Amino acid sequence: MAKQIKVSLIGNPNTGKTSVFNLLTGLNQQVGNYPGITVEKKEGVCKLSRGVKAHILDLPGTYSLNASSLDENVVIELLLNKKDKDYPDVAVVVSDVENLKRNLLLFTQIKDLEIPTILVINMADRMNRRGITLDIPLLEKKLNTKIALVSARKKEGIDGLKKLIESYTVLSKKPCVDALSFAPDYFDRLQKAFPNQSLYKLWLVITQDVNFRKFDKQVADIAPDFKIKSESELKRLQQKETIKRYQFINNVLKEGLVVDEKAATGMRERLDRVLTHKFWGYFIFFAILLLIFQAIYDWSSYPMDLIDEGFAWLSEFTKSILPAGPFVDLITEGIIPGLGGIVIFIPQIAFLFLFISILEESGYMSRVVFLMDRVMRKFGLSGKSVVPLVSGTACAIPAVMATRNIENWKERLITILVVPFTTCSARLPVYLIIIALVIPDEKIGWIFGYQSLTLMFLYFLGFAAAVGSAWILNKMLKIKSKSYFVIEMPSYKVPLFKNVAINVIEKTKAFVFGAGKIILAISIILWVLASFGPGDDFNNAEEIIASTHADLPQEEQENEIASYKLEHSFIGYAGKAIEPIVAPLGYDWKIGIGIISSFAAREVFVGTLATIYSVGSDEEETIKNRMAAEVNTKTGGPLFDLASGISLLLFYAFAMQCMSTLAIVKRETNSWKWPMIQLFFMSALAYSISLIAYQILK
Predict the structure, then answer these.
(1) What angle do the packed helices 199-207 and 70-80 form, to 10 degrees?
(2) Which of 49-63, 91-105, 343-357 has the lowest mean pLDDT?
């Protein structure tokens, strides 16, 4: 068996840690959650020489081991627990050459944990542009470590880093600074109370919210004479520790780092003045969004048409080569159309993730967060809440998890409750198919189309609903709070193709396979319910139609039989039962079934209708054509007209329709109270607005 080295990748946010992780692991990575919590866990495998492999764990970004959020606590808990299966053989601390002073604070703390530690100085390609010169041998000596000078952008220095990881056993475990010498009496007493423990680990346990109560009890049992200081005293000691570390870092960098300001070139400040401008900043942001939505429509139309026609052909081809029977009907009328209803949206979802990844990689998304902080404060939130709201455009589940970075409980709770209003990728299939059916495919001024403008409006509507609800909740929730907004502006950089590609592939794959499992199961259930029915009406459909429509051609008779059997199937009766509830919104019983089934996941709606409309119908027709041909039995016109289409768009803009999000909200708030309030409020709001819209437009 190959030897495996456990590596923890640690670093401040925006140091290029993800780029280094991607270069080491490529696509040999997986994303999950840490046991018992919803913090994302990224890990991968890196092949080293001579049959040696490294198991790389990408820990959440943290500025120091003085944790202020639950994400940062994950880092500390792992590094303090040697029994954890992921406890590292070697720690790799990633720093940014332009912010080395701040990054080294975390490095000196990791060194104090007596773990073999490698320092990666990333973005080395910027050294000439910024006029930076490093004395690597001197820095290695002063910091008591080995340094890998890396340029993730140019893929330079990674082989050297792999060699350092492989030879980690020769690295010194000794700290590089005596950071606890500022209070000798206190730490002498602490060491005497726990003579066999690492002093710095004891200090971390005391000052962090990591098993604090257990430690407090342990002190009382083992060392009754040792008194733990008050919270304010501990904070003062932490500040003294930080000052001590920065004094050491300043002395090291005075000798090891030289910056020639005259040689430095850059446009960061000038760009920031424009992109974060109190007027032009918003204008540029909205213009970028509009271009993104237009590109999503224009670029993806051709592959979508091919996929749509491909699934229609596959269904017909499967029917022609396999013997007729219920199993073949299940495949051609249930599974293939159901999966086709989600696969068709891969191009648009991939493009959405592509643009979001580019904005994040370039450093522009941090400017958006800073810009939107001015707006968010008026609604009782801060810029930190924008991160979950923006990430909610991909999926509400990781967006709810992202609220763990918000220290203030009231802010965090409000953000959790309003995040599901943000238009996620699961709503995108519903929006796209309905917009294509009811909004004209015409353009204004040769650039922007009505369809892309409608899609952009729905995104803004979701965001407006989120901040409006936040304003109401801020007034209603009587929770005392005080918060501060601090955000780092990373340097602008050209997005790395590999990072963007991995992000797009992983997130699209997660969306497709996550939704695919649900859709496959629901498609089978729906087909069974639509293909069988109780009583004589279903079983004798051929005779009934033959007697009442004897004058119709055979092909039209077959369509009438399929329609009659569907209406008198199990799903038909279930749909008819709920039709009185959804009829005032402009929906028939088939759409009602789609809404009920899509409670599992919003994107199931299109797959459900694709399955229902495929039962007994012409397989050569595409999903879009089947939906466009659906007739409203009351008006005789198309079922999906402007009134019913707008009503449906608004319903999905506001409705919760996601069991997984409710489960995550319950886990994050540790109560069913908040997800139930969330479900009731969003459902009532969606029904009311859809009702008003349909009644006005019909």
Answers:
(1) 150
(2) 343-357
